[in-house]
Structures are given as structure tokens and as C-alpha cells.
Design a protein that fits this description.
The protein has five helices and no strands. Helix 2 packs across helix 3.
């Protein structure tokens, strides 16, 4: 008597797909590397990602880039204020200049 097992056939088909795509070999290699690692990493998933070729930045790198961006934005604001002061403009003068640019005519005081 034969029994129909669609779940097993789907699993087998999926396993063959993973083998053809090279996923099984890549995972096996990385897991063997992790197994042979004398000092096991605290974050095993990060180890696997890194050794599978994942080039995404780490959380620390993202935080450093955010801080760098915030510093750069603040520096730009400071430099814009300094430029306005050197030109003798105030914030109100600058806003009025932006309004005149939108309408195409210069607003007079």
C-alpha cells in the first residue's frame, strides 16, 4: 500500500533547489567555520551573516554615521548663519529674500 505524502515531496523538492542554488554548500561552509572557531562569537547570527558575504554595516557603524551626519548638518547651519552675518543679513532678511524668489519680485521694506 502506498501513501501519498505531498509534504515530503515538497521538502525534497525544496532541498534539491537549495542544493542547485549553492545555498546548502554556503551554509555548510559557514557553519563549519563557526564550529571550528576557537573563540565562539557572542553573536553567532552576525558571524554567519558576515561570512556569507553580507556587507551591511553593523549597528555601531550605522550609529557612527548618524552622529557624523548630525554633526555635518549642525556645521552647515552654523556656517550658513556665519555667512548671513558676514553678508549683513538677518534671518528676517533671508526669509523675505526667499519670498521674493517665489513671487519673482523683490519685496521692499
Amino acid at each position: 500500500m502506498s501513501t501519498y505524502r505531498p509534504i515530503d515531496s515538497k521538502r525534497e523538492e525544496f532541498r534539491k533547489y537549495l542544493e542547485r542554488a549553492g545555498v546548502m554548500d554556503a551554509l555548510t561552509k559557514v557553519l563549519v567555520m563557526l564550529y571550528e572557531e576557537p573563540d565562539k562569537p557572542e553573536d553567532a547570527l552576525e558571524f554567519v551573516r558576515t561570512n556569507l558575504g553580507d556587507k551591511r554595516p553593523t549597528l555601531a557603524e550605522v550609529e557612527a554615521l548618524k552622529n557624523e551626519l548630525d554633526s555635518a548638518v549642525q556645521k552647515i547651519k552654523d556656517l550658513e548663519e556665519e555667512l548671513m552675518m558676514l553678508r549683513g543679513e538677518s534671518n528676517e532678511d533671508r526669509k523675505e529674500g526667499e519670498k521674493s524668489d517665489e513671487t519673482g519680485t523683490k519685496l521692499e521694506h
